[in-house]
Specification:
Layout lengths: L12 E5 L8 H23 L10 H7 L4 H11 L18 H18 L6 H12 L3 E5 L5 H8 L7 E3 L1 H7 L8 H10 L6 E5 L2 H9 L4 E5 L5 H7 L3 E3 L5 E4 L3 E4 L12 H7 L4 E7 L18 H11 L3 E5 L4 H8 L5 E4 L4 E3 L7 E3 L5 H14 L7 E5 L2 E5 L5 H17 L3 E4 L4 E6 L5 H15 L4 E7 L5 H7 L4 E5 L11 E3 L2 H16 L10
Parallel strand pairs: 1-2, 1-4, 2-3, 4-5, 5-6, 9-10, 9-18, 10-11, 18-19, 19-20
Antiparallel strand pairs: 7-8, 11-12, 12-13, 14-15, 15-17, 16-17
Helix pairs in contact: 1-4, 2-3, 3-4, 12-18, 14-15, 16-17
Length: 532
Amino acid sequence: MIRHTAPRTNLAAALFDMDGVVTDTAKAHAGAWKRLFDEYLRRRADHLGEAFTPFDPRSDYRRYVDGKPRSDGIRSFLDSRGIELPDGDESDGPDAETVCGLGKRKDHYFHEWLDANPVHAYPGTLKLLGALRAAGISTAVFSSSRNARAVLLSAGVLERFDVRVDGEDRARLRMPGKPEPDMLLEAVRLLGAAPGDSAVFEDAIAGVQAASKGGFGLVIGVARANGGEDLEKAGADLVVHDLSELRFSPDTGLTVKTLANLPCAWDRKDEIRARLADRTPTVFLDYDGTLTPIVEDHDKAFLSESMRTTVAALARCCTVVIVSGRDLGKLRDLVDLDSVWYAGSHGFEIVGPKGSDEGLEMGAEFLSELDDTERALADRLADIRGHALERKKFSIAVHYRRVSDDDLERLEDVVDGILGEHPRLYRGRGKKVFELRPDIEWNKGRAVSWILERISNRSSDTFVPIYVGDDITDEDAFHTLTGHGVCLAVRHEEMRQSAADYTLSDTRDVKRFLQWLTEITADPDATEGSGP
């Protein structure tokens, strides 16, 4: 997803969009917009005898309202449906059938969410922000929202920025909203920097267009799910899934982390050991590609006895969690250890060790829809040779490792077509696999956080999480643990962007690392015997 890889060492300022880049409020905005538009569209359809087509919180949100002032977003979306409403004015109440009225209703829905939920800042953003500020680079946060100050206060990050330009400033100065660059140019003016010497971090198409139009020196798109291609087309110089995939130092500037340029864990083992000083590790391990090699037939990825012995030895010294996209039942059968936690189906199914009453199941309301989707996939993919359909309890994997290049585009079209018929599911990222999952805010990173909360509630020990994984889906956990964990990626490929801290070369290297970790955890003063 990188367009320009040259590091930037001459940055004078960095500008951060708020929703979706600094804070995790983009989903809340999308939810408020969906509630607003679905209510309006359903009433309109009933009144006119038309079919009701709901607002899509992914595609409609990104295309028409994300990053724009409220009124512009309303007009843009309604125009896409051939609907025109009068603008009204600020005296309109939230029940008025005007642009201003709908805007106030949306604001009410968002405040309801804000009152009921804490706002969190993304760890990767905070880490990068800290590195930039430590180097003396000025920072600003910008947002089209008039709620920006309240959101930043809730997240505890208001004071981390030198300048804030938000919806209140836009209204006061009568600036046009994104995709016009005026708000960004005002922010960089207040910082005393030039646009060409400044970087902009944005997750919205309109925001990337504004930064590109304003002549900013570096435009970084943040695509937390999909949508990276849209950000590139809008003018992003590079696209990442999370800002933990970037690093900054005064010497090298702002660079993208890839599996090729991350340090090998063995070259930094003293650094890793120092991070474990006086703390107990909690170790999270992916299965396929981490504990077992990647194989052509996913049903034949069996755990070797020597790796099972290694994991069991580590579990006697600290908490160990096996995290996998595989079904919980299948995962437990493959690993066959009672002493570890299991998080199957990308964390949708979790159980504690034998004798523990800890457990979690997410997404049961999606099971019937997954059944229907599985049947449709089996029918429409039947004539595409080489594919393998793997139904898991809470997801469906379409493996295409053996599919010819000539058939791959057709397979992807079939998958996307079926997803269009089931909007409550989405296509997740994976290696040589399309994963169809429930469209809810849950992944390996969320599962890791849930388990760490349970472990910390049961013990007064100080934990440091360590996560070892090779898959794209493990990046969600790397994003979550940025800044307070140790993340190691198994390097089967080199060019993938990654939020990991270190790399290991293969499953044999993973076993050596786990043996070394067992030694220093069991006896922190012991002489190391398993190092390279």
